[in-house]
């Protein structure tokens, strides 16, 4: 017996039970498929962004070192200008405080990058 073709007039019939069975299968498989796809996407994103993360980490390390050097220089100036009022100004004190806050922010960024 050969395979008979279906004509346009014959149409296709699907029972309600078949439709419900297909829907039940899709609903059951959806969470698993969703988790698998999400894991794959996350892995690909991590892999593709890793070089940028590494470069950013190096930049943050360099900025931390530069900020520490600036703070050391400002503290040296402050400690050696006690006898001269115009040598250490309010602006210098504000700059030192700002540099310390910047250093804390950079160190926080470094710790966040190390967690990833």
Write structural notes for this entry.
The protein has 116 residues and is mainly α. It has one domain. It has helices spanning 16-79, 90-115. The two termini are 64 Å apart.
Structural class, by secondary structure, is: mainly alpha
**Shape by Cα distribution:** rod-shaped
Q: How far apart are the first and last residues' alpha carbons, in Å?
A: 64 Å
How large is the count of helical segments?
2
What's the structural domain tally? 1
What order do the helices and strands follow?
HH
Task: Give the % helix.
Answer: over 70%
Given as residue ranges, the uncertain stretches (5+ residues, pLDDT < 50) are: none
Largest beta-sheet details:
none
What is the β-strand count?
Answer: 0
Query: If you compute it from the alpha carbons, what radius of gyration comes out, rounded to the nearest whole angstrom?
Result: 33 Å
Strand content: under 5%
Mean pLDDT: 83
